[in-house]
Amino acid sequence: MPAPRASALGLMLGLLVLAGCAATGPSAPSHELLPRAAVELVDVPFYPQERYQCGPAALAMMLDWSGTSVGSQALTDKLYIPARQGSLQPELVAQARQHQRLVYPIRGEPQALLDELAAGHPVLVLQNLALPWWPRWHYAVVIGYEPKRGELLLRSGTTKRHRIPLSTFLHTWARGNNWGIVTLRPGHIPATAEPGPYLAAAFDLEAAGLPEQAATAYRAGINQWPGHPGLRVALANHYYTAGRTLDAAEVLQQGVSAGAADGDLYNNLALLLADLGRWDQAEAAAQQAVRFGGPNSRQYQDTLAEVCRRYPEGGCAAETQPGWN
Asked: Which of 120, 123, 179, 265 falls between 20 and 30 A from 89, CA-CA?
């Protein structure tokens, strides 16, 4: 079966930088925010960040909050680059996936950050605590917000409850390209998730060799967005690879009922129904894919031709044969 479209699965991991540890930053202008309740995620563990080892310690706090027991030292051995005195963002993301966590990059705006906190999700962020041309990179974990004081609470450096004015934080965060991620157990949906980026995050689990965790994430995404065709196709592909053709077809048929119709979905459904010997339905699905057209129209026409070739008792009706005008 065709894989989900590459356009739905492209994921930018952000600025490729190395981050050590630092402690101060300049002020920034205030930002208007919707009214918020105070929140503090006291269950997020604290691992003091030794010099140049902010990344491993910050990631360990995120992972252990989500239910692992990895600790900071094990991650330091895998992530810390002595010659560079820091850790790369993509390596942090890859390590989180190795611990079977869905990694979702949040939008680089204060509302998204506070939405995740309100949902009970700490956020791993990258700050530049100096100047753009003389950076001091620093990873921290945002665990709270106090609106009356206009301050965020961070697990940062060697301080368990580091207070920082929101305006100051936003300035330092912007100089880190507003990079921030949540790391959740598959099956949990980030508060700010959108279906396309969520599909990319789930597919990355599959690409990392974790198909069952990816399938759990796909199913959760379908529950959240039942009409999203990409999530349906991804889960159907998972089932098909596992030899569960009937389950794959049902996922796509249920998607059609939920409004998750596009050319790729109908094309895959046609192939599955043909494998199941449901020729009338396979022909109808292949026709629907051809009607959608688009950049994959040639593939859809080939699928219809294949269905008609395999169709018993003389093939498709004449008016549905490929090339009919």
From this structure: 120
CA–CA distance, 87 with 138 (Å, rounded to integer): 10
Burial of 291 (0-12, 13-18, 19+ CB in 10 A): exposed
Backbone angles phi, psi at 138, to 5 degrees: -155, 125
Cα-based torsion angle of the residue sequence 126, 159, 188, 272 in order, rounded to the nearest 10 degrees: 40
From CA 163, how far away is CA 169, in angstroms rounded? 10
Task: Encode pLDDT of 64-88 as tens digits.
Answer: 999 987 766 666 565 554 444 456 7
CB 183 within 8 A of CB 66: yes
Pair of tokens at residue 40: 């503090």
Q: What pLDDT, in 10s, does the model give residues 119-168?
A: 999 999 999 988 777 778 889 999 999 999 999 999 998 899 999 999 99
Across the range 203-220, mean pLDDT stands at 97
**Residue at token pair 């060799």:** 209
Residues sharing a CB contact under 8 Å with residue 113, sequence separation 6 or more, in sequence order: 106, 123, 125, 142, 180
3-state SS, one letter per residue, for the chain: CCCCCHHHHCCCCCCCCEEECCCCCCCCCCCCCCCCCCEECCCCCCCCCCCCCHHHHHHHHHHHHCCCCCCHHHHHHHHCECCCCEEEHHHHHHHHHHCCCEEEECCCCHHHHHHHHHCCCCEEEEEECCECCECCEEEEEEEEEECCCCEEEEEECCEEEEEEEHHHHHHHHHCCCCCEEEEECCCCCCCCCCHHHHHHHHHHHHHCCCHHHHHHHHHHHHHHCCCCHHHHHHHHHHHHHCCCHHHHHHHHHHHHHCCCCCHHHHHHHHHHHHHCCCHHHHHHHHHHHHHHCCCCHHHHHHHHHHHHHHCCCCCCCHHHCCCCC
